[in-house]
Amino acid sequence: MKPESLTVATDAAGLKGKTGWRRILQAGTYSWAGLLAAFRGEAAFRQLLALNLLLIPLAFCLEVGRVERALLIAVCLLALIVELLNSAIEAVVDRISLELHPLSKQAKDLGSAAQLVALCLITLVWAVILL
Hints:
Layout: H1 4-16, H2 20-41, H3 43-61, H4 66-96, H5 102-130
Helix pairs in contact: 3-4, 4-5
């Protein structure tokens, strides 16, 4: 007899469907759909993308070392990642219920706080490298 945790893991793997390259291609399709959904439905994502379209090319114009340039770019991309996760949290909370609830507010506030920290990180890293 299998332990329950092993059975659940095996059953979950069976639900995945595709394997190998087909699974990678399918995951890419899902990722692209997520990026399009964020671009179409999230003003904050579009604003952050615009900031990245300004800062990332600027990072290549600055006379800094390779490591510094990588950091300048990485923090910009990190903020995009945090915004995607924040949007995902908001979508899940709204999917569960649009009713005002303290835990729903807390989840959304925490996602927003994570984004604020990411934006502060951009400011800090760019300031330390450039000043």
